[in-house]
Amino acid sequence: MFCPNCSANVNKKLKYCSSCGERLSKSAEIDKDGMPGKMLDNILTTVFMIVMFGLGILVGLVAVLMGSGMPKEPVVVIVIAYLAAVFGICYTLLKQVPKLVDARLKADGFAEESRQAARLAPLTTAQLEEYREPVMSVTDRTTKTLDKVPIERG
Hints:
The protein has 154 residues and is mostly helical.
């Protein structure tokens, strides 16, 4: 197994990379039971099953009621009530999906801090920066003027 951060070869039993310290088990933990990824899959599967079995039961119920000679008005009321109940259940479950998607993105590392860190702070142009003293040169106050020396020609 290799570290996704530094590509170092690491033992599968380790949870952290021995060379860079990166957490290795992030992706495996996201889809465990109780984690946002697995819960999202479970909710969507549940909604699908409720809709499919609910519509199947509704069709069977309508066929039995109409076959027994029941008038259409009570059957229509039962169908509307049944569809309202199925819709309410699905709506309640689907309200949880955005929360789980946000939790999964946060678990993947797309937190608010990382999004805000990419932005530059706006500059205020109302005031000028303070005057900065120029940096002293290496040769400042280190050289002295050479004395004039008479040249002897011989």
